[in-house]
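To: structure desk
From: M.T.
Subject: fold request, one chain
Message: Could you run this one when you get a chance? Sequence is below, nothing fancy, just the single chain.
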Amino acid sequence: MTDDQATNAALMARRKAAIPRGVGQSHEVFIARGDNAEVWDVEGKRYIDFAGGIAVLNTGHCHPDIGAAVKQQLDLYTHTCFQVLAYEPYVELAERCNALAPGNFAKKTLFLSTGAEAVENAIKIARAHTQRSAVIAFTSGYHGRTLLTLGLTGKVAPYKIGFGPFPGEIFHAQFPNALHGVRVDDSIASIESIFKNDVEASRVAAIIVEPVQGEGGFNVAPFDFLQRLRALCDQHGILLIADEIQTGAGRTGTWFAIEQSGVAPDMITMAKSMAGGYPISGVVGRAEVMDAPAAGGLGGTYAGSPIACVAALAVLDVFEKENLLARSRQLGTHMMNSLKTLAGKYKCIADVRGLGAMVAIELCKNGDPHQPHAEMAKALASEATQRGLILLTCGTYGNVVRILVPLTASDTIVDEGLAILAASLVAVQSM
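Reply: Done. Structure tokens follow.
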């Protein structure tokens, strides 16, 4: 490749010619290298990364300990398919996940490749265990891009447009959102309404919930809501599944976000940051539930790749070595305080919210939370990119700007990023 071709614009032109438009692009930037919370593009420009590969890089870009573990494994073996020839890293990782998951009961863990696979398999396991078919998810929830997980997802644009029909016996209850007038009582009542109007409780296999909604806008589930969900599930023999694909791996200040509510779900789905950028996902749950499918009913060719397993083990070691759970809590407090100060100056910020280092701002028009300002969120992310900060938007209306900075980022880098965010907000104020 010649120098005149190695530009963001030239590479983007090649990308658009070669790759379907359905693969979206948040930023027209091509990365050349990354280091912890910083990246450099093919033109040599530096950026601070507040996106973290959509919550995949809690331990930062190219953490040396994770890289060393992977390089060592590369010289041993890279693939066997675990169902053909087993390997110890899979077993060790399962043991450690079992120990980390909340609940005073025996647990087992299954590994897969993607978050959507984890959710699909959790539903399969729930149906096998309960011998029931229906599933309840929530409005604004996001669970993946496969047909089953799109059915579970409670957000149409852009994920579900043109892809229906979706699998049946999936129902959506309201997710509590105090800012927009949905109380915990309303959410629980919407589940009871489903039992009355759509499907009897005795036919519901599982309720799946994100302890903090990711794509839905970083909406934090009130702890009493999660506790009431647990009680409702227990009352009707329904399994409770916590989708921790974005919240897990220490993002919220505990390894799993749901720990903070005191609730022990029957199954937890995990992926994203658990292997520091290497593709792996998993389901951890009650041993008797996880054992419900017959031999051969679970698995996959690349599921629980040995490369990803050793990377995930290294991530767990890094969390202990660098005390990253405490760092997540400290970072979250610092970012929330900074963003709340910003909100005090600009009425376009309708809300500042988060749990641990999973933090976001919601933007509105005329200081009215009920007038979402998606255009400003998009402009803010674009302006920030020009100034050297990578941000992501989310939310049902696209008006939420989220922060998923690596937990390993220094205070200096985080503050630099927050300053760019503030300057970018000032720059788009006229919208």
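Reply (cont.): The mean pLDDT is 97. Let me know if you need anything else for the meeting.
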